[in-house]
Amino acid sequence: MNAPAGVRPVHGKVDQQGRLIEADPPLLRLQERAGGVRGGALAIPQLASLARLTRRLGISISRRVVAANGDQDIDLWVEVKPGGPCVELAITGWQDIAPIPPQPGLDAIRWRDFSRASADWIIETDPMLRITQPPANMPAAIGQPIEALFTLTCDEAGVSRISESARTADRFEDDGATFLFGPGVPVRLAGVPLIDGIGNLAGYQLLVSRRDPRAQASARQAPPPPLDEAFGSQLGRAMREPLDRIIANADVIQGRSEGPVRRDYAVYAEDIAGAGRHLLALVEDLVDLQTIERADFRPEADRIDLNDTALRAAGLLAVRAANHQVTIDAPPPGPPVMARGDFRRILQVLINLLSNAIRHSPEGGVVWIRCEREGDIAAIIIADAGDGIAPEHQERVFDRFERLGLRDGTGSGLGLYISRRLARAMGGDLGVDSAPMQGARFVFTLPVGD
Fold first, then answer.
1. Fewer beta carbons under 10 A from the terminal one: N or C of the chain?
2. 101-216: same fold as 10-97?
3. Residue 408 in contact with residue 324, Cβ under 8 Å?
4. Does the predicted TM-score (pTM) go above 0.70?
5. Are strands 327-329 and 366-374 parallel, antiparallel or unpaired?
6. Domain 101-216 annotated CATH 3.10.580.10
7. From start to end of 273-421, where are the E strands?
């Protein structure tokens, strides 16, 4: 099958529709072994991708390519250049690649895959154990140390298991960690080292699973969820993984952390990462939407300090606000404002309201948060200095898929709808007071928690 060493390159031509219209015999045989035919679409994915790239950029590209050749791989050197209406291929090398023996790291990969199947959250860090990929509903955790999200198990010297494992780039497990979310969620951490192209530790992927024995026992005794709920849960889990990976890889390209990249490629990667985050947020919103619209949806009813919760939400979004040149004016120190509700859901509503306020604020603007109590009602007020909302549109912003006045085209149009449903499910409400060019003032109320 291989072209003999020392003979001329193997040539081919690909037309504007991506069809292999001319091919020397070795290339044609490779095309047929990949499932293609003479004159059909180029069936070798690596060559087809290079042909499309050359056509789009209008420049010649030379690159090493490893392609499938039956049960083994073949190493090719490919030069692709524009040739009028067609793209011309010139291929040299044609070296068979010996089968790769099983790698010692494969057991770690299998261990990671089994752990991933039961993970409730997937989080990634950099080599300094700072968050690079947080849970989808906590984007502002990027850049914070891992201890900002978890209380970790430590040895007698106070060294955590992840810190100890990072010294030798080993995987680890921590069965006694606590996710600092609300009153704290007992979790199990399974940490997989991420290795860069030259063998150095690039960070950790943390597979986080709840470990509440009572909840697990209750789940075993509970009847199976309705088919539509189970489908939604599985769909959300299935989509998060590839989207997380797309975003992470696009961020690597955009950040040029693995080497120089052309500026236009970096811009494309930034667009891909942005689109991936938008789609991931939409997936999360759709899963939430399915949950809150169930007839038996009942949030928790704990006593929550709204001042403390508002401070936490402001801290989580501090980086995002700074990136938009917006200041968050958090509640000043003072007595607690106690309410009754579900901490996780209250924080979700606050993060959504603050995110919207930051998005709609001008550069140099201030987002203002205050907590108050009036009789048997506790309230959190979030105000911005944006363009405001006309009176006739103030109820529309709480409709499903309403994206009224978004400057950057982001958002699913579900955030305020879900937030109001959550507020009302906890016995409170969510409303807005605004006027054009005078900012917006959202008031989130809950029952007093005395």
1. C
2. yes
3. no
4. no
5. parallel
6. no
7. 302-305, 327-329, 338-341, 366-374, 377-383
